[in-house]
Amino acid sequence: EVQLVESGGGLVQPGGSLRLSCAASRFTFSMYWMCWVRQAPGKGLEWVANIKQDGSDQYYVGSVRGRFTISRDNAKNSLFLQMNSLRAEDTAVYYCARVMEQQLARLNYYGMDVWGQGTTVTVSS
Amino acid sequence: DIQMTQSPSSLSASVGDRVTITCRASQSINSYLNWYQQQPGKAPKLLIYAASSLQSGVPSRFSGSGSGTDFTLTISSLQPEDFATYYCQQSYTTPVAFGQGTRVEIK
To answer: How far apart, in whole angstroms, are the C-alpha atoms of residue B89 and residue B94?
Structure first.
């Protein structure tokens, strides 16, 4: 079964850093865009960042740009999120997700078709 | 940035009911609209992509429609396992945006 498993969450003080990892298995990791999505306690889903198959392009939501860095290691089938200068509002469950691409009528459509179970990040003093 | 607005925020329905959830984009996103289901304590699950295409393995009671700015998710006959929160998401451009969610509760 295709699987994503996140790790690295925990309790960190405001201003601190944390590195999340996501291990992929049973699919060709290097062929897919990947992303991070988070969910604050009791709130909705918020996209955080995307990374291209070869890691050459990354995109971020404005609230984390300059503080978070998404990266990947295709040789190790792994996705990462380096989070610096953490704030209380970064407290959330962080999910990694695979971005699938489907072509319909010569147009490419994208959706997050495989998700990990999530890892919890708590920013508090 | 494109904003996604869902309505209603929550609804109560009975098993067997037909349920409709709407999603509106702040500008045209053509058919770049996905729907997800999230059950409590679990990761989201992709139901519909490209506004109306059913993701593999998703029951046919789920359907999506719309284009441009207005979209609909319909559950034709609500089942016990469908009580969950549903999110729309635009994949037209970054930043990717989700709607605020619609919680479907048991009546």
So the answer is: 11
Where do we find the tokens 């610096």?
A84
- Give the pairing type, strands B33-38 and A45-51: unpaired
Tokens of A39: 């969910």
Secondary-structure breakdown of chain B: helix, strand, coil percentages, each rounded to the nearest 5 = 5, 50, 50
Q: Does B64 touch chain A (CB under 8 A)?
A: no
| A63: helix, strand or coil | coil
Verify whether the Cβ–Cβ distance B44 to A109 is below 8 Å: no
Tens digit of pLDDT for each residue in A70-110? 999 999 999 999 999 999 999 999 999 999 999 998 989 99
Please name the residues in contact with B60: beta carbons below 8 A apart, sequence gap of 6 or more: B54
pLDDT computed for residue A40 by the predictor: 98
Q: Residue B74 in 3-state DSSP?
A: strand
Test the A interface: residue of B4, B31, B47, B49 with most A CBs within 10 Å: B49
Asked if A18 reaches chain B (Cβ–Cβ under 8 Å), the answer is no
The confidence score (pLDDT) of residue B41 equals: 94
Question: B4 CB contacts (<8 Å, ≥6 apart)?
Answer: B23, B24, B25, B26, B88, B89, B90, B97, B98, B99, B100
User: By C-alpha distance, which of B40, B6, B53 is closest to A111?
Assistant: B53
Q: B83-106 burial by CB neighbour count: b if 16+ within 10 A, else e? A: bbbbbbbbbbeebbbbbbbbebee
